[in-house]
Amino acid sequence: MREVPLESNSEALAFAARLFAGEFDIVIFLTGVGSRALLGVVETTYKRDDYAAALQRIKVVARGPKPVAALREIGVTPALTVPEPNTWRELLRALDDAAHSPLGIRLSGARVAVQEYGVSNPELLDGLNERGAQVIRVPVYPVGAAR
């Protein structure tokens, strides 16, 4: 185990640069801890308000109440919050339903970033890809994680 400084999280910084460039249609936040950790990385290079503004220009999806709380701390209200029990199955179901609702969140052809914290979820990523999304993983490494 060794310390990984937040600013060394190159994947998260690359995500931020692409977000600011308008390269995402949807960002999915899976965990509250990961959402806050991602913010910590982004803030090493960008202003918090600019990050929040960039997220407000696209569709933000939260897997449950913990990422919702983390996002609200920076003034971002998700367009879609996944119902309990907040698993990847409910996430995909909620996205399927949102495609046929006034939310208009459509995955086919969408550029989707998925915030990860810890282990990746291949079933979720496969499900998004099967629905036509162009998926980019955004792994956020916790301080203290070995890489």
Describe it.
By secondary structure, this protein is α/β, with parallel strands linked by helices. It has one domain (6-139): Rossmann fold, CATH 3.40.50. 41% of the residues lie in helices and 16% in strands. It has 6 helices and 5 strands. It has a 5-stranded parallel β-sheet with strand order 3-2-1-4-5. Strand 2, helix 4 (65-72) and strand 3 form a beta-alpha-beta unit. The radius of gyration is 14 Å and the shape is globular. The N and C termini lie close together (8 Å). The model has no long low-confidence stretch (mean pLDDT 91).
Summarize this, please?
By secondary structure, this protein is an alpha/beta fold.
Name its key features.
alpha/beta, 6 helices, 16% strand, 147 residues, 5-stranded parallel beta sheet, globular, Rossmann fold, 41% helix
**How many domains, as an integer?**
1
Derived from helix and strand composition plus strand pairing, the structural class reads alpha/beta
| Mean model confidence by pLDDT | 91
Describe the biggest sheet?
A: 5 strands, parallel
SSE map:
Layout: H1 10-20, E1 26-29, H2 32-42, H3 48-56, E2 59-62, H4 65-72, E3 80-81, H5 88-99, E4 111-117, H6 122-130, E5 134-140
Parallel strand pairs: 1-2, 1-4, 2-3, 4-5
Helix pairs in contact: 2-4, 5-6
